[in-house]
């Protein structure tokens, strides 16, 4: 009985190796999904508002005041949009008493 079991295991192993080499196990289980091409629309200028900076204000705090609910964009997007609206000015370079354009997010 032991010999029969060992012979059976060897035959099954050889059969599995044969199938794997001839047909492949991965190619039959993986399906090729159709690719979808995405065309980006031209970038629209973000909506914005102008506000004078007060003591203690940051770009993020001002943008959060005017957004409805939690911000739906990343901090990087806020910074990039602020720089676009203000000629490349970095958020850390804003000055108290000056007016700047801030993006609006819904």
Mind sketching the topology for me?
Blueprint: H1 2-22, H2 26-29, E1 48-52, H3 59-66, H4 75-85, E2 99-103
Antiparallel strand pairs: 1-2
Structure commentary:
The chain is 42% helix and 9% strand. Strands 1-2 form a two-stranded antiparallel ribbon. It has four helices and two strands; from the N terminus they run ααβααβ. By secondary structure, it is mainly α. It has a domain at 48-103: Roll (Membrane-bound Lytic Murein Transglycosylase D, Chain A). The longest helix is centred in the first third of the chain and has 21 residues, at 2-22. The protein has helices at residues 2-22, 26-29, 59-66, 75-85, and strands at residues 48-52, 99-103.
Features:
single chain, Membrane-bound Lytic Murein Transglycosylase D, Chain A, mainly alpha
Query: Under CATH, the topology of the domain at 48-103 is which?
Result: Membrane-bound Lytic Murein Transglycosylase D, Chain A
Shape: rod-shaped
Radius of gyration: 31 Å
Q: Please estimate the helix content.
A: 40-55%
Our count of helices gives 4
* CATH architecture descriptor name of the domain at 48-103: Roll
Beta content comes to 5-15%
* CATH H-tier superfamily of the domain at 48-103: LysM domain
Strand order in the largest sheet: 1-2
Please state the average pLDDT score.
82
Q: Quick one: how many beta strands?
A: 2
Q: What is the makeup of the main sheet?
A: 2 strands, antiparallel
């Amino acid at each position: 009985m032991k010999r029969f079991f060992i012979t059976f295991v060897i035959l099954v192993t050889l059969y599995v190796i044969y199938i794997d080499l001839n047909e492949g196990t991965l190619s039959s289980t993986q399906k090729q999904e159709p690719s979808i091409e995405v065309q980006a629309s031209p970038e629209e200028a973000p909506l914005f508002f102008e506000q004078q900076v007060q003591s203690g204000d940051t770009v993020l705090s001002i943008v959060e005041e005017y957004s409805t609910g939690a911000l739906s964009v990343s901090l990087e997007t806020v910074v990039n949009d602020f720089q676009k609206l203000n000629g490349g000015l970095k958020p850390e370079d804003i000055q108290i008493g000056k007016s700047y354009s801030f993006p609006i997010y819904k």
